Amino acid sequence: MWMKASRLASMTAACFAVILMTAGLVQAASVAFAAKAIAALPSMMTPAQAASNPAVETRVNSLLHQLTLTEKIRLLAGLNRSPYMFTSPIPRLGIPSVVMSDGRVGVHDWGADTLFPATVALVATWNQKLCYQEGVAMGRDARARGVDMILSPLVNLYREPQDGRNFEYMGEDPYLASGVAVNYIRGIQSQHVAADVTDFCAYEQENNRRMIDSIVSHRALEELYFPPFKAAVQKAGVWTLMSSYNRLNYEWCSADRYLLTDVLRHRWHFKGLVVCDWGLSNHVSTLRALRAGLNLEMPTAAHYTAKQVIPLIRSGDFRVARLNALITPLLRMIVAMDLMKYPQKDVSIALNDPYSDHIAYEMEKQGAVLLKNKNHLLPLSAGPHHLIVVIGPNARSMAPGGGSPFEGGGSSYGVPIVKPVSMLAAIRKLAPAGTRVVYLKSLQTQQARTVAQQADAVIACIGWNSNLEGEGGDHPYALPAPQNALVAQAGKLNSHVIVVLNGGGNVAMRQWIHQIAGLLDAWYPGQNGNLAVAGILFGKINPSGRLPETFEKRWKDAPAYGHYPGHNNTVHFAEGIYLGYRWFNKKNITPRYPFGFGLSYTTFAMHHLQVTATGSGKQRVSRVTAEVTNTGKISGAQVAQLYIHPLVDRKNRCVQTLKGFARVNLRPGQSKTVTMKLDWHDFAYYNSAKRVWCVPPGNYEIAIGSSSADEPLHKVVQMGQ
Questions:
Q1: Among 51, 60, 124, 426, which is least packed by CB within 10 angstroms?
Q2: What are 609-620's pLDDT values in tens digits?
């Protein structure tokens, strides 16, 4: 079975890592070997594979025949036991509890854990290989703690900058979010840990989240909000899916038969488990949730109790056969993962896994986005610097529970297994020899202002933290007034102010953006990510992150403006399909920083766009290639982004849509060819009237560039009927 092989692989990797570290070799060597050992794990079944596996289904059917009616109902809900992350066991049949954990920035419900950077930082890397590796690291951390199922990833989209969970989401574009989610899920499940894709569906705000009704057009659902979930099911083979708190088009998502049965089961052929978000709404009736196809109520039984379900069966409103179908996915997962035979906990994996620490660092190293670099002030190593002043509330390390700037709050909040490195400590560690680093709590006294004036650079560490951004509520568009005033004051004192920003998205910058020389979006950097941030500031690392969301100049420019947070428990997604850069194109609004944007310390050029196609109609596949060259003097990474511009039926189409991307690392003067493939569906839009995908015949422009606002390469292709 898989557990024996995986246990051997993990033990081999761990033992060899100890030998390497004992010998004084670098951590990277142990990480590299661990990666090879991880790759040796046999593949985990997907739900579809398990459903078609005779041995699995025979065992599941045997269990169904042995379960009593009361035991079957018990399997519909979680176990009333802290930390409320268990399914109910049936000890007499050897059916164990499935052990779960929240898992956006770490497997944190079972003690101290690796604190990864925020998910948005991972998305900002545009690195699909790294997305898989972070999933692997999360899976390993889960198995080290005996966790069977991670409640991650969240694949909702960035709709407005105030959303308290934007840092957990995957940006504004469904194609980018799908690519990240698929690789991340595959990474988790490669370690024989079930992933749980959440929150289904149109859950794009925290304010009033348990009552809000999201009114979304059918076309917007199909083109924007469904694709990441569909990709998780059909491409990644995700084992579980979480329904969201909100209503969608007047129906509670946890009791919406259209979502959970018609779309998920019938159209997408999902064979896994549907779990409600913790605490099913009292407005949801037990019968409607059962009939809709909600498999598991968490964290405990409130609706799915014997007292409520048995009368429905006796009256004929709900049949035992349907009950069997509801508990089958849970039993299928338990059998397919061998949870009845082998414990999930793998003691050969260190709780403080060097592989996880390495991946956490790489996420921030590749995901931090340099947005402004006036007169090439950065990197600071470019000239003599004798005094650097550090200011701002996020500069110093803060204990968990005290507004940590290393992570957002809510279900992402955790206790780090190692002491996180503060921004101030990282700056002091990596500043050039002979540089004096001074922290100033404020600029209110004359002495502090004099020091700031004399500094070669002032680094302002500002943004949200776990007290201000997290699950359960949204936050204002503007940062707290003292932070804005601090940066504005620093800008008046010194022309070399560099802002390091923490948070999940854009903030109001008008008060200080024109007074600063540099802006580095560090998101939430995790336990060791500030070392990468400081490495960027001092030129030891070339920044390579790219924005996964559009930063508007003012809130009034945003697509959700005027319709957020809604009225009378209802929010209208009035922008329809025009989310993010699609909106700015349609309205001809120039954003502060466009989708896909990010600066580097080197320069790049793109050449030789070629498109070749094979097949016809829905079988047509286009192969797109382009050459990317590093034209600067240092190594760096560029992200080639492919956008499609429909030149037919423009009135009903977005100006451009992302349909491909490739991150490429290049030495000075080096060129590489990137290749991306397009199928028929990449050119299509959803016709709501006919309920079909359509590709109107005519011309379409394929463009490749470095952001949605910079596309130097163009080629027109023709699509037929």
A1: 51
A2: 999 999 999 999
